[in-house]
Structure formats: structure tokens, C-alpha cells
Write a structure and sequence with these properties.
Layout: E1 4-5, E2 15-19, H1 21-24, E3 29-36, E4 40-45, E5 49-64, E6 67-74, E7 84-87, E8 92-97, E9 101-109, E10 117-119, E11 125-129, E12 136-142, E13 153-159, E14 164-165, E15 170-171, E16 184-191, E17 197-202, E18 211-216, E19 221-224, E20 228-234, E21 240-247, E22 257-258, E23 285-286
Parallel strand pairs: 11-23
Antiparallel strand pairs: 1-19, 2-3, 3-9, 4-8, 5-6, 5-7, 5-8, 5-9, 7-10, 11-12, 12-13, 13-21, 14-20, 15-22, 16-19, 16-21, 17-18, 17-20
Length: 289
């Protein structure tokens, strides 16, 4: 599997996008996107994977082992923060969308079976990260501090037009106790108004060679087994959204190492304001640097 996957390239059966650990050539992280027409439904067994049902557009009813949840969803990824359902491994999951919609299914190979959960949008922590033209919004719906999952870490990033995110470039491809955790990562992109953006991924050391400078559009994904990644560049005129899916064999924690050549940029944020276009979707927020 190549690192840059264009929209439709991994479509399989009912899924507009399907990245499994087997297809990616790694051990833990996965992502599917399903599009349902009005009145459409889909059911699957989670098997070894824990899964989140995350509305990208529209709402749905979700049943996990017979327990029902109603997801309000949203009009689109730039419109609002959404509620979601967490389903554990070894579960039967059913999705029914009376009005149709698009739904992301980020997943991770899980060792432990945890309870199913419905988390409402108002409980999703929103973080405004960076400053100036590196300002972006993070929806921490399944972030490392959200204790609902066994291995899965997943967040949404909203980047205003002409800003850079996933910056400074950073990596998390080695286990260094207290410093860095090894996490496989998938980026799934949507770009407002049919526009485009760019993503950079590059080598982080011997045996971790990778070289991606890609124009990305809605429905594209990039698979990152290792390497420094960033920036994600929103073109002028086009807001950028991406869904990050991460998992690994060790501690469920997001610890990373900045590229030392560019780490100095982080200190400059203390002298800049956060982009006033943020937050792009209303929800509780905090503003760390």
C-alpha cells in the first residue's frame, strides 16, 4: 500500500475507504468510511477491533450488541463538533441512517473489551493549538486523555484557510519511556469548497525512510508507519479538516518528538495571538500553548 491513498483507491464493498492493519502492513490502526443513502443501514462484527462510529455528515441510529444509541450527528465536518459511539471488540454493530449520511469508523486492534459508550458533542473537549498562522482546532473526541478506549487514539483537526497544522513536524515511531510512544497513524482529509491542501511526511532515521509531499483532496488518506509528519498546509481560500487515527503496541499515550531543526518555532507562539477564526465549531475549549 502506498503512503498517499487517493479518494476511492481503497473502496471495498460498502466502504468508500477501507484501511485495515493487514492492508497497511502494520499491527493496530484502521479506518473505514461508509456512505449510506436515505434509509440505508449497515451491520458488521467488530472482531479484534474497537471502533468509533463518528458522523462526518448526517445522523444515525447505532446499536451495539442490542443496546441502542441515537446520534444527532452534524451537517458536515466544518459545521460542528459531533457526538459519537464507542463500540468494543467482539461486538455486533448496526448503523441505520434515516436521512442518509457519511460515517467514519476509526479502529484499533484491542486487547481488552470495554463498555460501549455514547458521548454527546458537548462533552468533547476542543483545544485551540498553536498561534498565528500555525493556529488550529483539535476535537479530542477520543484523545489520549479520554478514558473510553483500550488502544485507539483519534482526534479531528480543523485548520483555517492558509494556516499550517501538524507543525512543527514531529514523530512518534519509537518507544522512549516518558518521551515518545510508537503509534501508527492515518490521516483522512476533507477540504472545504472542493479545494486542496498539502501534506509532508519525511524520514526520521535509519530504517524509517519515507518521503511524501502530496496534494490532498476530500476523501484522500495518508498512511504513516513512521517518519516526521507535518506540516499539513491549508491552501488560501480552503479550510482543511483531517481525522487522525493512532494506535500502537504500548501505552495508550501520545508522546512525540519534534524535528530538532524546527522545534524552535513552538516558542514563537508565546508572542502571537490565536487565529480569530477559531474555533470553527462551537464547543467547550481550552487554549494551551
Amino acid at each position: 500500500m502506498s503512503a498517499h491513498l487517493c479518494a476511492g483507491e481503497t473502496a471495498t464493498g460498502p466502504y468508500a475507504l477501507e484501511i485495515t492493519p493487514e492492508r497497511a502492513g502494520w499491527g493496530f490502526s484502521g479506518l473505514r468510511v461508509i456512505e449510506l443513502s436515505a434509509g440505508g443501514a449497515h451491520a458488521f462484527d467488530s472482531g479484534e477491533d474497537e471502533v468509533v462510529v463518528l458522523p462526518l455528515e448526517g445522523g444515525c441510529a447505532v446499536t451495539v450488541d442490542g443496546e441502542g444509541f441515537a446520534l444527532e450527528g452534524r451537517d458536515g465536518v466544518f459545521a460542528a463538533v459531533t457526538d459519537f459511539v464507542y463500540a468494543p471488540r467482539d461486538a455486533r454493530v448496526e448503523i441505520a441512517a434515516e436521512g442518509g449520511g457519511r460515517f467514519a469508523l476509526p479502529s484499533a486492534r484491542a486487547a481488552n473489551r470495554l463498555p460501549a459508550r455514547h458521548v454527546v458533542a458537548g462533552e468533547v473537549e476542543v483545544e485551540l493549538r498553536g498561534a498565528g498562522q500555525a493556529s488550529r482546532q483539535i476535537n479530542n473526541f477520543c484523545g489520549p486523555d479520554v478514558e473510553i478506549a483500550d488502544r485507539l487514539i483519534a482526534v479531528e483537526v480543523l485548520t483555517p484557510a492558509a494556516n499550517w497544522s501538524s507543525y512543527p513536524p514531529h514523530k512518534h515511531d519509537e518507544d522512549v519511556p516518558g518521551v515518545e510512544t510508537a503509534l501508527e497513524e492515518i490521516y483522512y482529509f476533507e477540504v472545504a469548497l472542493g479545494g486542496f491542501a498539502f501534506q509532508r511526511v519525511y524520514t526520521s532515521g535509519p530504517g524509517r525512510e519515507i518521503d511524501v509531499t502530496a496534494e490532498v483532496r476530500s476523501g484522500d488518506a495518508i498512511v504513516m508507519p513512521h517518519g516526521y509528519h507535518g506540516p499539513s498546509m491549508a491552501a488560501p481560500g480552503y479550510d482543511l479538516y483531517y481525522l487522525n487515527v493512532m494506535a500502537g503496541p504500548g501505552e495508550r499515550a501520545w508522546r512525540f518528538t519534534d524535528d530538532p531543526d524546527h522545534a524552535w518555532v513552538r516558542a514563537t507562539w508565546n508572542e502571537q495571538e490565536i487565529d480569530p477564526r477559531l474555533p470553527m465549531a462551537a464547543a467547550p475549549r481550552r487554549t494551551p500553548r
